[in-house]
Amino acid sequence: MKKPKYLYHGSSRKLKGKKLIPKKPSDIGKTKENKLKGVFATDIKQAAIVMALLSCKGVGNSSLSVINKKRARGIVYSGWPKQEYIYLYILPSKGFDNMPKGSWQWISFEPVKPLKTVKFKVSGYLDLIDKATKKEKEKFKELKKRG
Predict the structure, then answer these.
(1) What is the DSSP secondary-structure string of 43-67?
(2) Which end of the chain is more exposed for a tag (fewer CB within 10 A), N or C?
(3) The whole model's pTM is what?
């Protein structure tokens, strides 16, 4: 897989300082990547925007599904975004590793200075997320129980 020129990192918060700092992800998946401390990014712009929406104040449990190389959707199991803006950070791909190999996820173990920051109104992107159906909520509860 050829490394893209740029990667994207979505956030519900405006960056304090000049660099994104490595940290552990907060999702419940038991992949080895979830145990790593890094700056996580994606080569799918829409996935980064969905991640920003799912990390908004007011959103409890949620999940992200990547549909293809351009599309992603979020499911919100509890809560709903309660803030006005989200941020998309455009990052240089230098220093990032594709993890797992061949996936849409990338990680840098070093702080990363964004090339550009784009501020979006949350209300303009709510069509990228859905409230979970009763069946989806039940399936999520089962997954959470298994840890």
Answers:
(1) S-HHHHHHHHHHTSTTB-SEEEEE-
(2) C
(3) 0.89
Q: Is 44:90 a contact under the CB 8 Å cutoff?
A: no
pLDDT of residue 69: 85
Using left for φ > 0, alpha for ψ between -120 and 50, and beta otherwise, residue 140 falls in: alpha
Q: Which residues have a Cβ under 8 Å from the Cβ of 82 and sit 6 or more positions away?
A: 56, 57, 58
Note the pLDDT of residue 146. 72
Q: Would you give the distance in Å from CA 38 to the centre of its chain?
A: 13
**Per-residue pLDDT at 29:** 54
The answer to whether residues 39 and 105 touch, using CB atoms and an 8 Å cutoff, is no
Domains by residue range for the chain, with CATH: 6-146 (3.20.170)
Report the C-alpha gap between 140 and 119 in whole angstroms. Answer: 31
At 34 the pLDDT is: 56
Which residues neighbour 139 within 8 Å (Cβ) at sequence distance 6 or greater? none
CA dist 11 → 25, 39, 54, 56, 138 (Å)? 13, 12, 9, 8, 28
Residues 27, 25: Cα–Cα separation, whole Å: 6
Q: Which residues of the chain have pLDDT under 50?
A: none
